[in-house]
Design brief:
- The structure holds two protein chains of two kinds.
- By secondary structure, chain A is mainly β.
- In chain A, 8% of the residues lie in helices and 34% in strands.
- Chain A has a domain at 43-137: OB fold (Dihydrolipoamide Acetyltransferase, E2P), CATH 2.40.50.140.
- Chain A has a five-stranded mixed barrel.
- Helices cover 4% and strands 59% of the residues of chain B.
- By secondary structure, chain B is mainly beta.
- In chain B, the strands form six sheets. Chain B has an eight-stranded antiparallel beta barrel with strand order 10-11-12-13-14-16-17-18. An eight-stranded antiparallel β-sheet of chain B has the order 22-21-20-19-26-25-24-23.
- Among the domains of chain B are: 27-115, Immunoglobulin-like; 356-607, no CATH class.
- Classes of the chains: A mainly beta, B mainly beta.
- Chains A and B meet through helix 1 of A and strand 20, strand 21, strand 22 and strand 31 of B.
């Protein structure tokens, strides 16, 4: 599996680049009505047994869902729009034991677990980055250091 | 008088009386004639007057060839009253007949030459194209290229660059040949045979055969979508200027792009000065929720080839570009795993002198999917606002963040501040969307006010700006254009639409719709791919129908529950008119049912000319 997490470290390095010094401050969002936010400080891990894998579920967040039986009950784990796609997508089956890292949140009154990483057997899948944005499963890691900054960024 | 004589006299008398009492035969004339030439689907009033019709039985309307000559509403009129004749959907000669209802053999006729919106000859010359979307495995990809079209259905030459997040290396400079068709309503297909080193390139389309569905908007512009089993995507095809290719990628530009950087969603934009051999600029970016502004960027630029294709570098990122015009350039990144595509538009001056007053009055904003939201995934946004020319924006927006839409009734409100320095490298900040805290900040990159950002060869458009959303929970790229009208005037329209629904499908479509009497009807070519079970993979002729209802509180905003392919439940769209010939679509299908069907989508409606 491609090292997606390695790529994220690379991106983190990019955004603190001295070549990318901001000339105007990004405005802090004025949070009024909380929407669906991935708060990495609230990340937890959980393990459970898969009992259903769905590409989509009416009435829930668009995208793939994994339903688990865990020690505390059932969990609706949201995988985002890409995780079940293509040859690099998540391959799990009902009855399989998995470990998830992510954030539990509420969407339309129901709890949903936003999955950042998923371990199944010997495989670890990166589903989201640390900001909660869904990752493309098939993306290869760049062989260069990608940056817009002139002169490069290290 | 004998009996015989009496009978003769009686017979003559009866004959004379009978003749005197019967009315003369009616006569009919078409007094309001149809135009000698009408475009398909267009309507015109026609009227006829009947004389010697004392009972005022009126006129019956008919036409030939039967079944393909159009319709009349109503098909019977009173003497002198007008009916609305609507031309058929196919081109050809039509004979319109007005018949006296009193005596059907009394007729008057008029001839109409019904013309097509477009044909293969509409597309003649060298055109640049770009598309972005997803392949059948769900990998993001972008492509840009140039095709030379002979006006008779042949792609005689071309060149293409294509990058896919799953490829070990981008496709660079493939040669293209092929064929294309254009129907009466402007819909058609283009089949491109991509070769590298004289051999079919398996990385393009299906084993080197890439099929695009298209709708001709005018002779200089078509909307396109990849329409094969390999991928689904949307984009534009635009006539290239030979003079601009000769002139090269030179001048001051605003730019914006969206894609994926090593798998993470990424949008960037800014301003760029290109000398033709090098560039310098200032850019903003948002990598998966980490926005950065004021990035000093630039790098080497190479001159375009005969296809208008050259390369440029921003920082360490490599791009191929294709020139459309002196102030319009399409580009695609060609780095491994970093897949982005976008446009650069000229700023109209060697020494830009923009100000906040450059953004003044009503505007429409479009930030289409595949913009991306944190946690949920796909997002799209559209709206309209008034800029005060100084610092404040107020308006309304509709959006869809993975099924989260304005709670309604009606759109959310938008208020924000904006600033524009002389360079045109501006910003929208402190955004407040009434029910969604995620939309707050955009980079704002002003363009030449003479440009049309959707149809770059169109001399009307009023410029506007490219935008990049720079938020922690959302990112994406789009544009602002002046709102010059709050209703459309074009009967025949091209339409494009891109969507991600429920998790099942990536969808792109291009089609043609007729807007008349407050309704939309038409057909589209829909390509609906993985990961779910495709329901409309490479499907042509998918029917579209729905009522377009004005929002009484927000002139220019409309709702459109569109029945697609006869589905039991319509797709819920909101439409914002930017001009008489351009409307922006945002899909507001929510996870909140019934029905609980989340579809994040966006598109445009473009009047055919």
């Amino acid at each position: 599996m491609r090292n997606l997490l390695g790529g994220l470290c690379l991106l983190t390095a990019l955004v603190v680049s001295p070549f990318a010094a901001p000339t105007r401050a990004a405005t802090a969002p004025a949070k009024r009505v909380p929407t669906l936010v991935y708060d990495a400080s609230k990340e937890v891990s959980l393990t459970g047994t898969v009992y259903s894998v769905k590409n989509s579920v009416s009435g829930k967040l668009a995208g793939g869902h994994l339903f688990l039986s865990s020690g505390t009950g059932t969990v609706d784990a949201h995988l985002g729009p890409f995780a079940l796609n293509g040859p690099h997508g998540v391959r799990v089956s009902p009855g399989e034991q998995v470990k998830l890292v992510g954030v539990m949140t509420t969407f339309h009154g129901s709890q949903v677990f936003l999955v950042r990483t998923l371990e199944a057997g010997s495989k670890t899948y990166a589903i989201r980055n640390e900001h909660g944005f869904p990752l493309l499963m098939g993306a290869q890691q760049a062989t260069h250091t990608p940056t817009l900054a002139k002169g490069g960024s290290r | 008088m004998n009996r015989k004589l009496l009978l003769i006299v009686f017979t003559i008398t009866v004959a004379v009386v009978s003749s005197a009492c019967s009315s003369p035969s009616p006569k009919i004339a078409i007094t309001t004639a149809p135009p000698a030439s009408m475009e398909i689907n267009v309507s015109a009033p026609i009227a006829a007057t009947v004389t010697h019709d004392s009972a005022d039985k009126g006129v019956d309307w008919s036409c030939s060839p039967a079944g393909s000559c159009g319709t009349f509403n109503p098909a019977h009129t009173d003497d002198g009253a007008a009916t609305a004749y609507t031309a058929p959907a196919v081109a050809g000669a039509v004979t319109i007949t007005a018949s006296s209802t009193k005596k059907s053999s009394v007729t008057a006729t008029a001839m109409v030459n019904v013309t097509a919106v477009a044909s293969a000859s509409s597309l003649s010359g060298q055109y640049a194209f770009y598309v972005s979307g997803f392949d059948a495995a769900g990998n993001f990809y972008c492509a840009a290229g140039s095709v030379t079209l002979d006006g008779a259905g042949n792609v005689t030459a071309g060149e293409e660059d294509l990058n896919n997040s799953s490829y070990a290396a981008a496709v660079v400079g493939d040669a293209l040949t092929g064929t294309y068709t254009v129907g009466n309503d402007g819909q058609g297909t283009m089949v491109l045979n991509a070769t590298t080193g004289g051999v079919a390139d398996p990385l393009v389309g299906v084993a080197g055969v890439q099929t695009l569905a298209l709708t001709v908007v005018n002779n200089n512009h078509a909307i396109v979508s990849e329409f094969d089993a390999a991928a689904t995507s949307g984009g534009s095809l635009d006539l290239q200027s030979a003079a601009a290719i000769t002139g090269g990628f030179v001048g001051n530009f605003a730019m914006a792009a969206h894609g994926y950087l090593s798998g993470s969603p990424w949008a960037f934009g800014g301003i760029l000065n290109s000398t033709g051999t090098s560039s310098t600029g200032t850019a903003d970016q948002d990598i998966a929720g980490t926005p950065t502004t004021g990035i000093v960027t630039g790098g080497a630029v190479t001159a375009p080839d005969a296809s208008g294709r050259g390369t440029f570098v921003l920082g360490t990122l490599n791009f191929s570009y294709y020139i459309v015009g002196a102030e319009a350039v399409r580009f695609v990144e060609t780095d491994i795993a970093d897949v982005t595509g976008g446009s650069a538009f000229g700023q109209g001056s060697a020494a830009p002198a923009f100000s906040a007053a450059s953004v003044s009055g009503p505007f429409v904003i479009d930030e289409p999917w595949p913009s991306t939201a944190s946690a949920g995934g796909p997002v799209s946004l559209a709206g309209q606002f008034h800029a005060d020319g100084t610092s404040a924006i107020t308006g309304v927006v509709d959006y869809n963040e993975a099924g989260v839409v304005p709670p309604g009734p009606g759109p959310d409100t938008l208020a924000a501040n904006y600033a524009v320095p002389a360079s045109g490298y501006g910003s929208i900040t402190s955004g407040v969307v009434s029910n969604d805290a995620d939309f707050t900040t955009w980079g704002l990159y002003l363009t030449d006010s003479a440009l049309n950002l959707v149809d770059p060869n169109n001399p009307s458009g009023g410029g506007g700006a490219l935008i990049v959303e720079l938020d922690a929970n959302d990112l994406g790229a789009g544009f602002l254009v002046p709102q010059t009208a709050t209703a459309g005037t074009s009967v025949n329209n091209g339409v494009d639409f891109v969507a991600f629904n429920n998790g099942d499908d990536f969808i792109n479509s291009v089609g043609q719709v007729v807007a008349a009497s407050g309704t939309i009807t038409g057909t589209a070519s829909v390509n609906d791919l993985n990961p779910g079970t495709p329901s409309q993979a490479e499907t042509t002729g998918v029917t579209l129908a729905g009522p377009l209802t004005a929002d009484a509180s927000n002139a220019g905003r409309y709702t459109l529950p569109l029945t697609v392919g006869g589905a039991a439940t319509p797709t819920n769209l909101v439409v914002y008119f930017a001009s008489a010939g351009l409307a922006i679509i945002v899909d507001v299908d929510s996870t909140v049912g019934p029905p609980a069907f989340a579809q994040v989508g966006s598109g445009t409606v473009q009047g055919q000319q």
